[in-house]
Specification:
Helix content of chain A: over 70%
Largest sheet of chain A: 2 strands, antiparallel
Distance between the termini of chain B: 53 Å
Number of strands of chain B: 2
Number of helices of chain A: 16
Largest interface: A-B, 49 and 52 residues
Strand content of chain B: under 5%
Radius of gyration of chain B: 18 Å
Distance between the termini of chain A: 40 Å
Radius of gyration of chain A: 21 Å
Structural class of chain B: mainly alpha
Strand content of chain A: under 5%
Oligomer: heterodimer
Strand order of the largest sheet of chain A: 1-2
Shape of chain A: globular
Helix content of chain B: over 70%
Order of helices and strands of chain A: HHHHHHHHEHHHHEHHHH
Chain lengths: ~350, ~280
């Protein structure tokens, strides 16, 4: 159980030379740098762009969660919109019913609620494979938002729940939306540091082993069922947090935002970014926000009628899913990696020649 | 008691539709080991074509025929253009591609016919308990299901299709055109799916109209074991009646969640479906 692979000593030596800092510290420093970049970006852009940056933030954590589940562990979820739904309604209910709770507690509870749902889904999912799992999670995405109509008084029916959060301390003189964007990104980056640490660590190795060959994984002492449930749990916590942040940002939670199409567009983002790469999640999240924006602009420019304009983003996501799988199975991040490989190869050759 | 009877009869006619769409999924799954998530969208496009033809000509049955033919062609095109290039790739690839097709076709339907609900007619009079239309739905589905089973089991074409699905290499050496058989399977399935769409859609047609039905059909197919046509048809009727009780006694909003609960419970107790045979997974 303890030693799975034997690493040649030279490789260890080079790895040590490269990594002076422990991984967790490196990831924290990286996240701080990223946060600084986001703060600068929000300061130099207008309110409208701030909102887009914040939107990219919560999509990023949702897509990263789905990447961990689908790309790294090989389980399909067509129901991640349902976990976002749970997170969003948790925040909405807490803000309305328990206004005394601070925002960070609301967001933590939203993540926990998402995680709880993920645990249940995962327990079922551990026994399901491929198409069965896809079907079950699709049923979750279709069925859950309908509950708002069943419990009209509690969940506000199809209009959803609206609320206002005053998260900004009075001493800080920045526009509300900019402050909200910072909160969103701060939460997302904290969550991402944890996710990256999991993925780079032993659990991440277990995930990939389960994805590549379940039988081989269980023969090497990995509890396959438990690993799958853990992947679902982490992934759903990310989804819950994403939903909670969305509700916090928009001040509303309504069933119309959590259609099955949302779940499918999250999957499109994962596939486009590159299955199995957390960097891919960033490209996917950016694409999700900007394809929506661009197709609105395009519809404006071409004076498309509203029927065409409203359906354009979905058509684009669908085409992306098909084209990427057929022609570029490794997505955007795969393209970057290939590019880096091409750039690095001449340098390596030189090094080798010098050695001989 | 009166209500119970109404719910049971309503459930039978709803279940017939789930059985038909489930059958479409099973035919494809048997042929190519792909769950066709685009099935509701293929049926949706055919149903919209039926709407346009019926509106232009005034004949419901002309629209009906056009829908079935269009559905078949869409199924054939999907297999040839999207599924065949993926035959050596992972299960995930085909799931993602069919989902992409689902999104594209639903968006196209919305672009052409708008997202607003359009009135779509029933085939026959639909008023009252177990109306003429309900009877028609149940009879048509039973007839088609019987036809599909007979074709698969007793005709040379069916034998070739089964051979192509289960032992493609052997079938090929015996002179079966495996690729053609898979294409025929997709066409046949999409035709059955379009029929299900025509029966399930009334009274209103809009791009997401078949989403719910698709979830129930998939549930029915899984209940039946996913590669067992007879089990799927039984699963469809059982699910239709069961969900009709849920809708009547607990509220229509609970139906999808109930379907999910049934799906999960059945799969935990019997991972290969109620009527499926346990399979040994090869390493």
């Amino acid at each position: 159980m303890t030693v799975r692979t034997s690493v040649p000593e030279t490789a260890v030596a080079t790895a040590k030379k490269k990594r002076v800092l422990p991984p967790l510290l490196r990831h924290v420093l990286f996240a701080l740098a990223a946060f600084a970049v986001v703060v600068v970006l929000t300061l130099v852009t207008d309110e409208f762009t701030n909102l887009r940056i914040a939107t990219i933030g919560y999509y990023l954590i949702a897509v990263a969660g789905l990447t961990l589940l689908t790309g790294l562990t090989g389980q399909v979820s067509l129901g991640h919109g349902a976990f976002m739904f749970i997170g969003a309604y948790t925040v909405a209910l807490l803000v309305r019913r328990v206004p005394a709770f601070p925002l960070w507690a609301d967001l933590l509870l939203a993540s926990a609620a998402g995680g709880l749902a993920g645990l249940l889904a995962g327990a079922a999912a551990a026994r399901l494979r491929g198409p069965y799992l896809a079907g079950a999670t699709l049923a979750l995405a279709v069925g859950l938002p309908a509950l708002t109509r069943r419990f009209q008084d509690f969940l506000g029916g199809s209009n959803g729940l609206s609320f206002t959060v005053h998260s900004r301390p009075s001493g800080i003189a920045v526009p509300e939306l900019r402050w909200q964007t910072w909160i969103v990104w701060l939460s997302v980056l904290i969550a991402l540091v944890l996710v990256v640490n999991v993925v780079r660590g032993r659990l991440g190795r277990d995930f990939r082993a389960v994805r590549d060959d379940e039988v081989a994984a269980s023969l090497s002492g990995i509890a396959v069922g438990r690993t799958k449930i853990l992947a679902f749990l982490i992934s759903a916590v990310c989804g819950g947090l994403a939903g909670g942040l969305q509700a916090f940002l928009l001040g509303t939670a309504a069933p119309g935002s959590f259609t099955p199409a949302l779940s499918l567009s999250l999957l499109a983002a994962v596939v486009l970014g590159g299955l199995g790469s957390l960097w891919g999640a960033l490209w996917g999240a950016v694409a999700l926000v900007y394809f929506q924006a661009w197709s609105e602009d395009l519809a404006d420019v071409l004076h498309l009628n509203t029927d065409v304009a409203n359906n354009l983003p979905l058509a684009v996501y669908g085409v992306i899913l098909i084209v990427v799988v057929l022609a570029f199975p490794r997505g955007i991040q795969g393209g970057f990696q290939r590019l880096r490989g091409l750039l690095r190869r001449p340098a390596e050759k030189k090094e080798n020649n010098e050695k001989h | 008691m009166q209500e119970f009877l109404d719910l049971t009869l309503g459930g039978i006619s709803a279940g017939a539709v789930y059985a038909a769409l489930g059958l479409a999924l099973v035919i494809i799954y048997r042929a190519t080991r792909v769950v066709n998530f685009a099935q509701p969208a293929l049926a949706l496009i055919s149903t919209y074509l039926a709407y346009s033809v019926t509106k232009a000509t005034g004949s419901y049955w002309l629209g009906f025929a056009v829908a079935i033919v269009a559905g078949t062609l869409l199924g054939v095109a999907t297999e040839r253009l999207l599924i065949r290039p993926l035959r050596h790739r992972s299960e995930l690839s085909s799931i993602i591609v069919t989902l992409g097709l689902l999104l594209v076709l639903q968006a196209i339907a919305g672009m052409i016919w708008s997202n607003e609900p359009l009135a779509f007619p029933y085939a026959f009079d639909f008023v009252g308990r177990f109306s003429a239309n309900d009877l028609f739905v149940v009879l048509v589905v039973l007839l088609i299901a019987a036809l599909v089973l007979v074709v698969f089991k007793y005709t040379p074409l069916g034998l070739r299709m089964r051979a192509a699905a289960f032992a493609p290499e052997v079938a090929r050496t015996l002179g079966v055109r495996v690729g053609l058989m898979l294409t025929i399977g997709w066409g046949l399935a999409a035709a059955v799916g379009s029929l299900a769409g025509l029966l399930a859609t009334p009274p209103f047609l809009f791009p997401n109209v078949l989403d719910g039905v698709f979830v129930y059909a998939l549930t029915a197919a899984v209940l039946g074991g996913l590669d067992n046509p007879l089990g799927t048809i039984a699963g469809g009727f059982v699910l239709g009646v069961g969900l009709s009780y849920v809708s009547g006694y607990l509220g229509p909003e609970m139906v999808t969640i109930a379907a999910l609960a049934i799906l999960v419970v059945v799969l935990i107790v019997r991972p290969s479906g109620l009527f499926g045979r346990a399979k040994v997974r090869r390493v």
